[in-house]
Amino acid sequence: MMSATSTLALTHFVTLADSFDKDKVTPGVLGFIVFAVIGGAVWLLMKSMNKQMKKVDFEEQPEDGDAGTTASAAAPAPEPKTS
Q1: Higher-confidence position of 8 and 69
Q2: Per-residue DSSP letters for the chain?
């Protein structure tokens, strides 16, 4: 047997279900939470990427006119043989 309170509660749920428009579905709270979690994850990934990129020590190769220091340390290339 159903009590009066359970009957009253079921009556409220039925009226809520009748007023639900199946053509207008919104993401609601769950959609906002998922979107916020994705946004937070992207923010953390960008922060981590910036941290890793600051660790990179990139030195550009010197141009031909400024190659005096690195060229003197390198061994000279052997001359090609001509017959």
Answers
A1: 8
A2: ---HHHHHHHHHHHHHHHH--TT----HHHHHHHHHHHHHHHHHHHHHHHHHHHH----PPP-GGG-HHHHHHSPPPPPPP--
Are 62 and 70 spatial neighbours (Cβ–Cβ below 8 Å)? yes
Residue 63 is encoded by which pair of tokens?
């141009």
Tokens (6 digits) for 32: 């906002």
Taking the C-alpha atoms of residue 27 and residue 32, their distance in angstroms, rounded to an integer, is: 7
State pLDDT tens for residues 5-23: 666 666 665 555 567 677 7
What is the identity of the amino acid at 5?
Answer: T
* Nearest-angstrom CA–CA distance, 35 and 29: 10
Q: pTM for the complete prediction?
A: 0.43
For the chain, the distance separating the N- and C-terminal CA atoms, rounded to the nearest angstrom, is 112
